[in-house]
Design brief:
With about 220 residues, the chain is an alpha+beta fold. It has 4 helices and 10 strands, in the order H-E-E-E-E-E-E-E-E-E-E-H-H-H. The chain is globular and about 60 Å long. GO terms for molecular function: manganese ion binding.
Amino acid sequence: MELHYTKRPVLLFLSFTLLLVLIRADPDPLQDFCVADLGATVVVNGFPCKPASGVTSDDFFFAGLSREGNTSNIFGSNVTIANVLSFPGLNTLGVSMNRVDVAPGGTNPPHSHPRATELIILLKGRLLVGFISTSNQFFSKVLNPGEMFVVPKGLIHFQYNVGKKKALAITTFDSQFPGVVIASTTLFASNPAIPDDVLAKAFQVDAKVVALIKSKFER
């Protein structure tokens, strides 16, 4: 009998924990679809639905990933985004996708997606892909066509073309709007700018070095 009462608090705790998990989880959609009304004036943690009477087949179609991206830029890469902003039919469905074109020697620079896990599949070329964990451990692989790599939610990661030809990858996300924080431009090209002294202290360099790096991102 005493053992029975000892187990009861544990069972209550587990039940309460499970209840919290269920409450905090994102709810499933309550309708077949909710095409985003991007012109809505009120937006609360997402986009409201376009009236069903105005929805057409075009709302569920996106051709943007079929076109090669222009890699003539400082990073030698181009990311074509298919999230809810460019593909409103994804609203409430919890998925999105990018096309990543990378020139030889180019990189999709270190960045993170605060709201999604990323799955990378390489279609052409050779890419070094990697991420850094919160314990500062670096995980990486060189991908060949058909191979995949997963990046856990919110962690800094990158893709770098180690081949002699252009690389093409498709990245998928478990969010309609994963967001992106590019480390270099966030730190050295924010508006308003982070004070040079803060960055100099953080990177243990002279403020002149910080100013030089910032000048590389001036438009």
